[in-house]
Design a protein that fits this description.
One of its GO terms (molecular function) is metal ion binding. The protein is 38% helix and 19% strand. It is of the alpha/beta class. Among the domains are: 233 residues, 3-Layer(aba) Sandwich (Aminopeptidase), CATH 3.40.630.10; 117 residues, Alpha-Beta Plaits (2-Layer Sandwich), CATH 3.30.70.360. The radius of gyration is 29 Å and the shape is globular. The structure holds 2-acetamido-2-deoxy-beta-D-glucopyranose (4 copies) and zinc ion. The site of zinc ion (ZN) has 5 residues, from loops.
Length: 576
């Protein structure tokens, strides 16, 4: 009897194993192919999220105003007159400057430019000024009230802001057209405020003039509210308090303001993204106080060197990404998955299964995170924006300050983000043996000693400005149906019938995240229904808002007028 040697035994076993392994691999490949390419039949027991898809919506009296709406969108004479109003509004330089006094009452002359703008508005919109009642709030804030016949109905509130972001002198020579010239070339309108957001303010006023001309008398009160320091975080804006005093909390039917993305092509679908929420916001100051001295006898690490380590620590410790139903961005992708004509099958699967399947969730987070322009929507961001320190090249710095700005994801909050930064500082403070004092955002003026001060020095952390993530506007109800359905109507039937008339494709109107913070942050008490959406063609990032050569495609401006005109008519027909 020949005994099978260990060696042959193992060889045999290995062969068998290899065979099993190969079979297993084949099975895996088949399974994964099936997993990625066949799963279009969705499991019955799992509830797949739904896009709040809407039908096209028109007011019941649409037919009688159809000709006028076509004129607004297409008529060259109308366009010419409208362009003139935009040009004159851009020519009123209403820049907001960082050193603007907060006390308006005693510094009226510093705001004189708004009087010039107000006069221009009176000249260009005579009917509106005859018909609506104007309240000047905190001197330069504008609140117009168009009284409705039925005061039991909640007013509709339309917003924009009068001020524009300032021009840096250094960039002046890079403007193709001077920023306050207001140049129109037949297709594009150039100038500061053309996109952010005099187009919205002027467009709303043009729509109201047209409504007055056709003899419309609102049942539901309409309010226009225009602040004058939106670019300075709105601390002088007393309009919302004024409106709340008149009408009470949660008294508005809905609020519309700038924000969101007009139209954007995502994976070959055209989407209109209505901002139904905003991220939170925090500015943090982190400073080091350290003994100075002559730089001929330095310590191993100066205050600047230690701050350098902290910078690396913060930037390497990124916030996590999230893809959850708490964030309106989630529905943006669900809408894409459900409505896109040619979306990639794997992407579609991952979106629809993201709330049940960790791998799908991770795939979709990686997909969104891979592009800077989409990644901001699914995580708290951090940007180190200012650093100050050192005064003399031969003296050791005694004080260094870093300022950072963080935009808070909807799944997180101010406290959560702040603690991440405190943790980063604590790590570095321990490493270099410094003390650490922290002033927490909701305990202003009270320092907490996390690490006692040492001979080396001390870190101080405090917040400068905080805003929690916003409440989320409900969607899927009748208010959403009117807002989103009007948007579809304007784009598909009025503006671009040649693309949509005989096509399966639609403009996918979806909730999403506002790209920044708007004045609506002070209006949360007035309504749960806040739509941050400026009709138009280009997303605001493309339109160079805040940058050089801000511009709009003028078609977009005409769409604002048509949208506002129709939206007011439709809302007027609804009951609360
Ligand atoms: C409007 O038309 C008039 C007359 O043709 C022209 O002089 C003017 O420049 C036009 N305005 C704009 C903004 O194009
Ligand atoms: C989207 O794509 C279409 C066709 O490819 C193009 O005509 C349109 O200008 C694009 N829109 C935006 C907002 O990029
Ligand atoms: C978009 O359309 C182009 C041309 O039809 C196609 O090649 C591409 O794969 C599509 N992209 C996506 C993400 O579906
Ligand atoms: C803040 O967010 C953290 C983490 O998500 C959570 O544990 C905490 O309860 C939140 N605090 C508040 C006040 O919402
Ligand atoms: Zn703005």
């Amino acid at each position: 009897m020949t005994k099978m040697t260990d060696k042959t035994f193992f060889t045999e076993k290995k062969k068998k194993l290899t065979l099993i392994k190969s079979l297993f691999l084949v099975l895996l490949v088949v399974l994964s192919l099936y997993h990625f390419h066949k799963p279009k039949t969705l499991k019955k027991d799992i509830e797949i999220p739904k896009c709040p898809t809407v039908d096209i919506y028109r007011p019941s009296n649409y037919e009688s105003n159809k000709e006028l709406l076509h004129k607004i969108i297409n008529d060259p004479v109308y366009r010419n007159i409208s362009a003139g109003k935009m040009i004159r509004s851009i020519q009123c330089d209403t820049s907001s400057y960082d050193d603007e006094p907060e006390d308006v009452e005693n510094n009226l002359e510093s705001f004189e430019r708004f009087n010039v703008f107000h006069k221009q508005l009176r000249d260009d919109f005579p009917l509106l000024h005859e018909t609506l009642k104007l309240h000047n709030v905190n001197h330069f804030g504008l609140v117009y009230i168009w009284q409705g016949s039925d005061s039991s109905l909640q007013p509709l509130l339309l917003m924009a802001h009068q001020d524009v972001s300032p021009i840096s002198e250094a960039s002046l020579d890079q403007w193709i057209h001077p920023p306050f010239a207001g140049v129109y070339d037949g297709k594009f309108m150039y100038g500061r405020g053309s996109a952010d957001c005099k187009n919205l303010l002027i467009g709303q006023m043009e729509a109201i003039e047209e409504l007055i001309k056709i003899g419309f008398k609102p049942r539901r009160t309409i309010i226009l509210s225009y602040g004058y320091d939106e670019e300075l975080t709105g601390v002088r804006n007393k309009n919302p308090a004024f409106i709340e005093e008149m009408y009470g909390t949660k008294s508005m039917f809905a609020i519309m303001d700038e924000g969101g993305v007009s139209l954007q092509n995502i994976s070959n679908s055209t989407m209109a993204i209505v901002g139904t929420g905003e991220k939170g916001y925090i500015d943090v100051s982190i400073s080091i106080q350290k003994k100075g001295g002559h730089s001929s006898v330095p310590q191993d690490h100066t205050a600047i060197g230690i701050m350098g380590s902290l910078i690396v620590e913060i930037e390497d410790d990124k916030f996590e990404t999230h893809f959850t139903e708490l964030n309106p961005t989630f529905y943006q992708y669900v809408c894409l998955a459900e409505n896109s004509v040619d979306i990639d099958a794997v992407l579609k699967h991952d979106i629809l299964y993201s709330q049940f399947d960790d791998d799908a969730n991770s795939n979709i987070r990686n997909f969104i995170n891979s592009d800077r322009l989409t990644s901001y929507a699914i995580k708290t961001t951090q940007a180190l924006d200012i650093i100050n320190g050192g005064v003399k090249v031969n003296a050791l710095p005694e004080f260094v300050e870093l300022r950072l700005n963080s935009r808070i994801a909807l799944e997180e909050n101010i406290t959560f983000a702040y603690e991440k930064f405190v943790k980063n500082v604590e790590t570095i403070a321990k490493k270099y043996d410094l003390g650490l004092n922290v002033e927490y955002p909701y305990n202003k003026g009270e320092d907490v000693v996390i690490l006692p001060p040492t001979d080396v020095g001390v870190f101080s952390v405090k917040s400068l400005f905080v805003l929690e993530p916003s409440p989320i506007t409900p969607v899927g109800d009748k208010k959403w149906k009117v807002f989103a359905g009007t948007t579809r109507h304007i784009y598909e039937e009025l503006a671009y019938p040649e693309i949509y008339e005989n096509s399966e494709e639609q403009v996918i109107v979806t909730p999403g995240l506002g790209t920044g913070n708007t004045d609506t942050r002070y209006y949360w008490r007035l309504s749960d229904y806040i739509y941050r959406y400026r009709p138009g063609v280009l997303p605001s990032v493309t339109a160079n808002s805040h940058g050089i050569n801000e511009y709009i495609e003028f078609d977009g401006h005409l769409q604002i007028i048509a949208f506002t005109f129709e939206y007011i008519l439709s809302v007027d027909e609804l009951d609360d």
